[in-house]
């Protein structure tokens, strides 16, 4: 069977990781990536052997800088089956029109609204909804994190209501523009967008979210309180999460008390770019009191959506109908497992 030909539009925090993940799959071919400026990321893409495509208005700048390009973005469209759009938010409408004109499928990221595509994707919760779709959207890092844990809990125990507080990183490690540097910044527009985003995939879930931006670049942390319809025990919830796809349980008593130590674990696991693709839940922070469940989880904002993009490619291109089989293939290629 011919490999799926994939182009990645935007080679930043998410795009570079998607490109590496695509290149690691034996049923996909990375046709190329795009950049708008001849900066170090463009040079890094070339060093990895990726073909580089640019907007027509950027051709002169790349030629003047002596940075080799394979053609324009529209040239790339002619060579691919699907584009993974990793461009900054708020330009989705422009690129959507380009993809439709070129007749290529496209995946957008969580920075765009659900209304852009009408379909949002999570490999565990609704893999089949993107089957054969022309456009889809992988939900944001925080939404992916909530779906990874709340969906299996809801399937087993039925979540009547969930209350979530998200302590957000202020910036990614490579970003020097954002803040706060020394403070905590609450999101006063309530509820935050995360709850409705979860509902784009689990519309029946009654979920309310708040968020605080913190002076860190490493990860997000969620505090989750869920009212369950079915009485259960702490151990039964632990057992469900142990089996949940792309969820990793850790214990503070083992020395993993902070997000810094989670990222150190990712380094020790030898992950590409030290990424932690899984949602990390503190096992000794899970507690059921009556029918109320409490737990903490950490989300690596740079990488948890990467395997979701790979599975979304397979669903949209109709090459693997079974969600679990696609996840297994993706996980094996990226080194995701339940063990150390």
Summarize the structure.
It contains 11 helices and 16 strands. By secondary structure, it is α/β, with parallel strands linked by helices. The radius of gyration is 20 Å and the shape is globular.
Describe this structure in words.
It is a single chain. This protein has two domains: 166 residues, Rossmann fold (3-Layer(aba) Sandwich), CATH 3.40.50; 159 residues, 2-Layer Sandwich (Dihydrodipicolinate Reductase, domain 2), CATH 3.30.360. The model has no long low-confidence stretch (mean pLDDT 97). By secondary structure, the chain is an alpha/beta fold. Helix 1 crosses helix 10. Strands 4-3-2-1-5-6-8-7 form an eight-stranded parallel beta sheet, with helices on both faces. Helix 9 links the parallel strand 13 and strand 14. It is built from eleven helices and 16 strands.
Name a few traits of the molecule.
8-stranded mixed sheet, Rossmann fold, 16 strands, 11 helices, alpha/beta, about 30% helix, 8-stranded parallel sheet, Dihydrodipicolinate Reductase, domain 2, about 350 residues, 2 domains, single chain
């Amino acid at each position: 069977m011919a490999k799926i030909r994939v182009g990645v539009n935007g080679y930043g925090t998410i795009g570079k990781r998607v490109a590496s993940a695509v290149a690691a799959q034996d049923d996909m071919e990375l046709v190329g990536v795009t950049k708008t400026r001849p900066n170090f990321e463009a040079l890094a893409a070339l060093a990895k052997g990726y073909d580089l495509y640019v907007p027509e208005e950027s051709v002169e700048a790349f030629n003047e800088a002596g940075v080799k390009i394979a053609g324009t973005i529209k040239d790339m469209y002619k060579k691919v089956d699907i584009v993974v759009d990793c461009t900054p938010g708020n330009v989705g409408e422009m690129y959507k029109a380009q993809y439709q004109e070129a007749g290529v499928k496209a995946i957008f990221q969580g920075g765009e609204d659900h209304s852009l595509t009408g379909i949002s994707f999570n490999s565990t919760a609704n893999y089949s909804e993107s089957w054969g779709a022309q456009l889809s959207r992988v939900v944001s890092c925080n939404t992916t994190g909530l779906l990874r844990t709340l969906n299996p809990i809801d399937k087993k125990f039925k979540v009547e209501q969930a209350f979530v507080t998200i302590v957000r990183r202020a910036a990614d490690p490579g970003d020097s523009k954002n803040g706060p540097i020394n403070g905590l910044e609450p999101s006063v527009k309530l509820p935050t967008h995360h709850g409705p985003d979860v509902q784009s995939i689990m519309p029946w879930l009654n979920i309310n979210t708040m968020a605080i931006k913190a002076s860190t670049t490493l990860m997000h942390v969620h505090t989750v309180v869920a009212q369950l319809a079915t009485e259960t025990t702490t151990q039964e919830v632990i057992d469900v999460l142990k089996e949940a796809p792309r969820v990793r349980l850790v214990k503070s008593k083992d020395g993993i008390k902070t997000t810094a130590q989670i990222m150190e674990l990712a380094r020790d696991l030898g992950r590409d770019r030290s990424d932690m693709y899984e949602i990390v839940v503190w096992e000794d922070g899970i507690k059921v009191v009556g029918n109320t469940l409490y737990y903490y989880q950490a989300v690596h904002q740079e990488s948890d959506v990467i395997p979701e993009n790979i599975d979304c490619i397979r669903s949209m291109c109709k090459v693997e109908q079974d969600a679990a089989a696609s996840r297994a293939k993706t996980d094996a290629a990226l080194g995701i497992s339940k063990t150390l």
